[in-house]
């Protein structure tokens, strides 16, 4: 017969094993949640490779789950890109009540991710001594008013040659989530991006239709004399710039 001492010893050993398994599982789970949901990434260079892994070629875009970045837009640099301060978890992890987003240029240095709106191309602003394109100021003001200082979620689809995260961006407006690229096309301040490497998620048809309607209504930049119209892509090529 098994003695009482042996039964107690077996019980202790079993309990110790169970506790070790629970502790290990908890630590692994916490590490997974921390890396996926809580860890803050200050720049594009700090993002893990999984953010830029190629999407499955044969899988319909609407069924592809891409990693996302949640944060606050700290500045709009051009008419189709901006700077994001990553705030993973939002209010649940203390952002905007236990800790705040820096505001000064010094505090934000090397602490933001450069985001390029996926699927659209906006009129070019002045760069490196080159003149600005017509309606670039208006397009810039639209984007600044639409996302400046706002909390947005970026669905990451890639990284371009300028180390910008290329993504579809959602922002809440009047309680509804709006796709920024789509709304910019509707307002007439952008055209569908068609250069090599363009990504749209599952939004291409919606983008094309939005641009078509904006052209018909002659809103935004489509109010100009179309005989003189130069697309952002053509403008960049004529001034010796790569597609951006």
From TrEMBL:
Annotated keywords:
Calcium, Endonuclease, Hydrolase, Membrane, Metal-binding, Mitochondrion, Nuclease, Transmembrane, Transmembrane helix
Gene3D superfamilies membership: 2.40.50.90
A cellular component term (GO) from this record?
membrane
Q: Where would you find this protein in the cell?
A: Membrane; Mitochondrion
Classification via Pfam families = SNase
Q: Which InterPro entries match?
A: SNase_OB-fold_sf, Staphylococal_nuclease_OB-fold
Q: Please tell me whether the keyword Isomerase is annotated for this protein.
A: no
Q: Specify the TNase-like domain's residue ranges.
A: 67-224
Membrane topology label: Single-pass membrane protein
Show the PROSITE patterns listed in the entry.
TNASE_3
Q: Report the transmembrane regions from the record.
A: 16-34
Q: Which GO terms describe its molecular function?
A: endonuclease activity; hydrolase activity; metal ion binding
Q: Which domain of life is it from?
A: Eukaryota
Family, as annotated: Belongs to the LCL3 family.
Name of this protein: Probable endonuclease LCL3
Recall the taxonomic lineage recorded for the source organism.
Eukaryota, Fungi, Dikarya, Ascomycota, Taphrinomycotina
């Amino acid at each position: 017969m098994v003695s009482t001492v042996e039964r107690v010893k077996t019980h202790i050993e079993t309990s110790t094993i169970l506790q070790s398994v629970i502790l290990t599982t908890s630590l692994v789970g916490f590490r997974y949640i921390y890396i996926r949901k809580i860890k803050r990434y200050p720049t594009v260079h700090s993002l893990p490779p999984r953010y830029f892994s190629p999407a499955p070629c044969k899988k319909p875009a609407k069924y592809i789950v891409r990693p996302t970045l949640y944060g606050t837009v700290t500045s709009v640099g051009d008419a189709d890109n901006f700077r994001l301060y990553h705030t993973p978890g939002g209010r649940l992890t203390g952002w905007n009540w236990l800790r705040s987003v820096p505001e000064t240029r010094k505090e934000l240095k090397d602490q933001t991710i450069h985001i390029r709106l996926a699927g659209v191309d906006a009129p070019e602003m002045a760069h490196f001594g080159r003149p600005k394109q017509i309606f670039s100021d208006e397009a810039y003001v639209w984007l600044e008013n639409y996302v400046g200082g706002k909390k947005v979620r970026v669905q990451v689809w890639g990284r371009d040659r300028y180390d910008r995260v290329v993504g579809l961006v959602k922002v809440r407006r009047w309680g509804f989530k709006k796709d920024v690229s789509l709304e910019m096309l509707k307002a007439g301040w952008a055209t569908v991006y068609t250069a090599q490497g363009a990504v749209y998620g599952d939004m291409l048809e919606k983008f094309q239709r939005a641009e078509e309607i904006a052209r018909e209504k002659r809103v935004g930049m489509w109010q100009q004399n179309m005989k003189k119209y130069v697309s952002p892509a053509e403008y960049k090529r004529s001034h010796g710039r790569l597609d951006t």
